[in-house]
Amino acid sequence: MLKFDRVSKVYRVGSFGGDELTAVRDADFEVRPGEVVSLIGESGSGKSTLGKMALRIASVSRGAITCDGTDISTLRGNRRLKEYYRRVQGVFQDPFSSYNPIFKADRVFAVIRSEYHRGVSDAEWREKVRSALDVVRLDPAQVLGKYPHQLSGGQLQRLLIARALLLDIDYLVADEVISMLDASTRIDVLNLLADLKARGMGILFITHDLALGNYISDQTVILHKGSIVERGGTEKVFGDPLHPYTRKLLASVPQFHKKWEEVEAELRARELADTGSRDYHLSTAQEVPGDLVEASEDHFVQPFVPGVRA
Ligand SMILES: Nc1ncnc2c1ncn2[C@@H]1O[C@H](COP(=O)(O)OP(=O)(O)OP(=O)(O)O)[C@@H](O)[C@H]1O
């Protein structure tokens, strides 16, 4: 299990690094094998920072990320890090940035071979690559031996996923992998992620797109200004959103048959109807939101003051 245990990230900012910016505050959730967890939030909410910390691209300031019980910040030395990256890999929004334009795209496979599969014969390796490409539905004739600029964003994205498959990873951090793709390729990559999940891979699916999150995930985590405001089973979070911010996010998905004023009025009416009736509502006297409370089974929300805009 990939577990985020009250994880915070504080960046040093300002001209001399004298200021601090808390990008993530006390994030607490987990990704289990064979489960897709969507991390949803607006730009700047801290989503990528959480993904980067899981991949050790950014350090954890407070709390811990553990992989099957091992605090990943304690992994030192090439061998232990290599072991970790054999289990946990990331694929990012802009697939082009993961390739060196002067090398052929399938060099990413050669690197994996020299790092992790040295003893494998040429024939065996060709077969491994072919079967990984098969899983990501790429035709070897169309992609092998090509330079990155000769391939589409969707093909490059799928090559990176094939690379992850060659490592036989357990967890994938997929950071806005769909955003740059056209509509038909999006569906292909989403279906591919669903296949990987069915094979037992745990996926942290980072997105600002609620519809994508709803489509693919078992668990949903809603992030707002670095804090988790709501999380739980996807059907609970989408079917019965509790936090005003989640409701606002869901309402902001275009509802073409309604005017925005109508949507806003409905939101307010719903919140007023709830006022005082739930144990995660705070009075204005307790305005500082604390830890998430369990509203129902597998559904957690950050306490909030009803009627106060998120
Ligand atoms: N290396 C860094 N140094 C300082 N501040 C950073 C750094 N990386 C991110 N931040 C800040 O941390 C906050 C969270 O950024 P992050 O990239 O995690 O958000 P995000 O939700 O992934 O946004 P987006 O969807 O736009 O990628 C932002 O305010 C961002 O400006």
Walk me through this protein's architecture.
With 310 residues, this protein is of the alpha/beta class. It contains eleven helices and twelve strands. The strands form two sheets. Strands 6-7-8-3-9-10-12-11 form an eight-stranded mixed sheet, sandwiched between helices. A hairpin with a 5-residue loop joins β1 and β2. The structure holds adenosine-5'-triphosphate. Adenosine-5'-triphosphate binds at residues 11, 13, 21, 23, 41, 43-49, 208.
Offer a quick outline of the entry.
The chain is built from 11 helices and 12 strands. It is of the alpha/beta class and 310 residues long. The chain folds into 2 domains: 30-56 and 76-234, Rossmann fold; 240-310, no CATH class.
- Largest pleated sheet: 8 strands, mixed
What order do the SSEs take from the amino end to the carboxyl end, as H and E? EEEHEEHEHHHHEHEHEEHHHEE
Derived structural class: alpha/beta
Uncertain parts: none
CATH class of the largest domain: Alpha Beta
Keywords: ATP-binding, Nucleotide-binding, Transport
Protein name: Peptide/nickel transport system ATP-binding protein
Pfam family, one: ABC_tran
Organism: Actinorugispora endophytica
Provide tags for this entry.
310 residues; alpha/beta; Rossmann fold; 2 domains; eight-stranded mixed β-sheet; four-stranded antiparallel β-sheet; 36% helix; globular; binds adenosine-5'-triphosphate
